[in-house]
């Protein structure tokens, strides 16, 4: 995907003069405002992208509803996850061509290697940095990744936050191997991607949920075992039965809080726990004796780098993995899509598209 222009030229922009963009001041879904604004122009090293599909995360609700420290100080364009087509190319661009389908990285400066203070900045769609909820956006070519060739726009839009986070945990940190058991808490976006990646890597996924309906869907997606924690509150004891007393090789801890104690009891000696979720709170009493005696490794997981994203895209194409979508809304139903997300009854990603 190389552009043939030299550093002193740019490709013509195939876009109108004006576009619709949606902004929030953190004052609720009902106050999400659409306005007509000029289409931005790509500068040196930048591409103009026509957004074709987006997906929403709980994080987007935190920004739009102004929760805790997520309230924007001024009007911002929200939403992190999107895919679009390159319709304009600035000077010096050599990573993408007109017509390429790309997504923005969640952390635009984290290209490779370990996360650092210098790269852990400017997350897309947050209370400061602008997001993707607009007809056109300008991206730095180095802060974008080509979409999987095997996925349509609606499925590709689901990847930037949840899928990359799951890939980081499953493939990069835990390095799941064929035959290894993996406890995955819940059936949220990260959990379902983790389930799909574990299966493709030859692992044995165990899924938890409080919904028999969601657990049935998880089994149809390939979960080897399921645990309903509303009827079987001692998840760890059940997991130990499933694994004949050994415990699981790896845990995807997407709940957080005191649920970490369940994970510590369920993991085998020398196992790993990828700590991802904060649903159950930012602090909890943890059995540190279990942590020591299990000789366990706990990894904190923050989305992923561009290298991880690109590696995941290749894996998705190779294994023909199709993200689980709960529902698809039109661009004119943004409020309904966000309300559906807030209700928490969805299974799979909620997607917004311009095609409907």
Would you mind describing this structure in some detail?
The chain has 356 residues and is α/β, with parallel strands linked by helices. It folds into two domains: 18-158 and 325-353, Quinone Oxidoreductase, Chain A, domain 1; 163-300, 3-Layer(aba) Sandwich (Rossmann fold). Helices cover 26% and strands 25% of the residues. The chain contains ten helices and 15 strands.
Q: What are the defining features of this structure?
A:
356 residues, Quinone Oxidoreductase, Chain A, domain 1, 26% helix, disordered N terminus, six-stranded parallel sheet, 15 strands, seven-stranded mixed sheet, 10 helices
Q: Give the helices and strands as they follow along the chain.
A: EEEHEEEEHHEHEHEHEHEHEHEHE
| Outline | globular
- Rg for CA atoms: 21 Å
What's the N-to-C terminus distance? 29 Å
Helix content: 25-40%
Name the beta content range: 15-25%
* CATH-defined topology of the largest domain: Quinone Oxidoreductase, Chain A, domain 1
| Tally of domains | 2
Helix tally equals 10
CATH homologous superfamily descriptor of the largest domain: Medium-chain alcohol dehydrogenases, catalytic domain
Q: Assign the CATH class of the largest domain.
A: Alpha Beta
- Largest sheet composition: 7 strands, mixed
Runs in which pLDDT lies below 50 for 5 or more consecutive residues are 1-9
Q: Give the name of the CATH architecture of the largest domain.
A: Alpha-Beta Complex
What's the overall average pLDDT, rounded?
93
């Amino acid at each position: 995907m190389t552009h043939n222009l030299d550093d002193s030229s740019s490709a013509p922009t195939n876009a109108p003069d004006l576009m619709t963009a949606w902004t929030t001041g953190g004052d609720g879904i009902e106050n999400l405002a659409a306005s007509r604004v000029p289409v931005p122009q790509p500068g040196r090293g930048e591409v103009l992208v026509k957004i074709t599909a987006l997906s929403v995360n709980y994080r987007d609700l935190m920004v739009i509803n102004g929760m805790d420290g997520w309230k924007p100080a001024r009007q911002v364009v929200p939403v992190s996850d999107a895919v679009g087509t390159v319709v304009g190319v600035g000077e010096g661009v050599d990573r993408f061509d007109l017509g390429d389908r790309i997504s923005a990285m969640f952390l635009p400066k984290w290209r490779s290697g370990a996360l650092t203070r210098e790269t852990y900045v400017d997350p897309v769609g947050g209370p400061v940095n602008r997001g993707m909820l607009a007809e056109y956006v300008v991206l730095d070519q180095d802060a974008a990744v080509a979409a999987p060739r095997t996925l349509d726009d609606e499925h590709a839009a689901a990847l930037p936050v949840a899928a990359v986070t799951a890939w980081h945990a499953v493939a990069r940190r835990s390095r799941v191997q064929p035959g290894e058991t993996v406890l995955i808490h819940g059936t949220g976006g990260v959990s379902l991607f983790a389930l799909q990646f574990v299966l493709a890597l030859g692992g044995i996924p165990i899924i938890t949920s409080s919904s028999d309906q969601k657990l049935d869907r998880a089994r149809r997606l390939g979960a080897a075992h399921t645990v309903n924690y509303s009827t079987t509150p001692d998840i760890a004891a059940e997991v130990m039965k499933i694994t004949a007393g050994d415990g699981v090789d790896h845990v995807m801890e997407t709940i957080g809080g005191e649920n970490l104690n369940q994970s510590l009891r369920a993991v085998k000696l020398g196992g790993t726990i990828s700590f991802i979720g904060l649903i159950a709170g930012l602090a909890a009493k943890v059995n540190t004796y279990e942590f020591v005696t299990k000789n366990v490794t706990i990894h904190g997981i923050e989305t992923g780098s561009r290298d991880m994203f690109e590696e995941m895209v290749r894996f998705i194409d190779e294994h023909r993995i199709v993200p689980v979508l709960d529902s698809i809304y039109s661009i004119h139903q943004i409020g309904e899509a966000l309300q559906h997300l807030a209700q928490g009854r969805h299974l799979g990603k909620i997607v917004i598209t311009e095609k409907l």
